[in-house]
Design a protein that fits this description.
InterPro entries: Capsule_polysaccharide_synth (IPR007833). It comes from Candidatus Kaiserbacteria bacterium RIFCSPHIGHO2_12_FULL_53_13. Pfam families: Capsule_synth. This protein is an alpha/beta fold and about 475 residues long. It has two domains: about 190 residues, no CATH class; about 240 residues, Rossmann fold, CATH 3.40.50. It contains 23 helices and 13 strands. The two termini are about 10 Å apart.
């Protein structure tokens, strides 16, 4: 088969071996990856392959192996056919180019349509492999054009603790076996789950604070001595170029101004665990969990407005900011956390911003339900005996106890069921986990998975290779 490989080798260097093995049975037409990561790639072993650097693609720079001068701009009618994704692309551009005006963003998008449409016309692949859910401007456009043209797409997505993967053809539909898990499920006892799955279930369902290991590590390196050391290292270039004093003065002035954290702290109120409430943990942004997986609910205030309009009498929404949001952006206002955003949230009916330091599992355990676009708090909730409302397309969207919602009326119906104490049956949860275990495979496409995995790295890439080959044969 003629293949495009998008992203594989960009994070985990040994994934180069997956592509090398695929090349023995298939023709690799196009390979896009981060050149600086996959330094071991011997391009001589891939005669005829078009190579494209990931970082260049982010800037809209074409592969040097493609003569795009012959590609004609799309017509109005062709562009209109893809109008449903234009809003999503505008959000994705915000991650890298937040200062771009709307017309520059549109022109960038139209150029992406022209380039990737032309590449598909010229090379005509049989299948395209994406190392994760397409969430950058270039791979999202490629994915959408490919889907409309009927080209097979294969997406890898992590499950559980990021050290296992499933495959999709369409991220909006999810894994086919998981979508139809009841047809495949059999009554499963706890001791019939594999040790990894059983450990995950017992930890998340029974531990007081089962924070994922990768988040604990992230928090560690972004606080205390680790944070001080990282900041100290970042000052070295400014010391060398003599701008350290000027930057220091600017930093002092910045500290005197109110920042995004100050706005939140001025509005927060302690959580009253005795009141009926729905817990809404805000997503870190920008990230693929809201764009594209959250769809229109990349605007999380829209999600909050929808929930607020549907809330039963006397219920509240407890909103909690993601603890990484302020650390990652240094307390600065951004296009995703603009000045006044928390004030907008706080003005909504029956909404309360709770302190970020409030334990998320305490909030889950005392909530009537959890609501999120795609956050793992929803999966954690059902494992802890709660229901969850999800607005987007996470890998677990078909799990028992999940209410998939997209409007006020959907939420009202979900809340009515929850008030009747309709919760996921523990047996259904065990059956579902067994299906996840059977259809997923060992492997990881991100550093989080590599940091928590307990198995051999060679085994990981070999299982990824086998899963891809299986999908190509379908």
């Amino acid at each position: 088969m003629k293949l495009f490989i998008i992203g594989l080798g960009s994070v985990i260097p040994e994934h180069v071996h997956v592509v090398e093995e695929l090349a023995k049975q298939h023709e690799i037409l196009y390979w896009l990856y981060i050149y600086d990561v996959a330094k071991s790639v011997d391009k001589a072993r891939f005669p005829g392959t078009v190579f494209h650097d990931y970082r260049a693609a982010l800037k809209g720079i074409h592969s040097e192996n493609i003569d795009a001068s012959r590609f004609e701009p799309w017509s109005k009618d062709d562009i209109v056919l893809f109008s449903a994704i234009e809003s999503e692309i505008m959000s994705m551009i915000d991650k890298w180019y937040p200062d771009w005006p709307i017309l520059k963003r549109k022109d960038f998008y139209y150029d992406l349509l022209c380039y990737w449409g032309g590449v598909l016309d010229q090379l005509n692949p049989d299948a395209i492999l994406f190392a994760d859910v397409p969430h950058q401007m270039f791979d999202f456009v490629l994915y959408e054009i490919a889907k409309r043209r009927g080209i097979k797409t294969i997406i890898l997505d992590p499950v559980f603790r990021y050290d296992r993967l499933v495959t999709y053809r369409d991220y909006r539909a999810g894994n086919e076996a998981l979508a139809n898990w009841k047809q495949r499920a059999r009554e499963t006892k706890l001791n019939e789950l594999a040790p990894e799955t059983r450990g995950y279930y017992l930890e998340v369902s029974g531990s007081k604070d089962p924070s994922p290991a990768h988040f604990t590590e992230w928090n560690k390196v972004n606080s205390g001595l680790y944070k001080f050391r990282r900041h100290a290292m970042s000052l070295i270039p400014f010391i060398r170029d003599g701008s350290i004093i000027e930057r220091g003065v600017m930093r002092i002035f910045k500290m005197l101004k109110s920042n995004v954290k100050d706005e939140y702290l001025a509005l927060e109120r302690p959580a009253d665990l005795k009141k009926p409430y729905v817990y809404v943990p805000i997503h870190y942004q920008p990230e693929l969990t809201t764009s594209p997986q959250g769809s229109v609910y990349v605007d999380q205030i829209l999600m909050m407005k929808t929930l607020s309009a549907a809330l039963p009498v006397d219920w509240e929404l407890y909103i909690k900011e993601h603890p990484a949001q302020w650390m990652a952006h240094g307390g600065n206002f951004t296009s995703y956390r603009y000045r006044g955003i928390y004030e907008e949230m706080a003005r909504l009916r029956n909404v309360r911003l709770v302190p970020v330091t409030t334990n998320t599992f305490t909030l889950i355990d005392n909530a009537k339900a959890i609501a999120t676009a795609t956050g793992t708090a929803a999966m954690e909730a059902i494992l802890r005996g709660k229901n969850a409302l999800i607005f987007g397309y996470p890998w677990f969207m078909h799990a028992p106890g999940m209410f998939r919602v997209s409007c006020v009326e959907d939420c009202r119906k979900a809340f009515a069921r929850i008030m009747e104490e309709k919760r996921a049956d523990e047996q259904d949860i065990l059956n579902y986990l067994k299906v996840v275990e059977e259809v997923s495979f060992r492997g990881y496409t991100a550093g989080e998975g590599a940091s928590v995995s307990t198995y051999d790295r060679k085994e990981a890439w070999q299982e990824i290779l086998k899963a891809i080959e299986d999908e190509l044969r379908k």
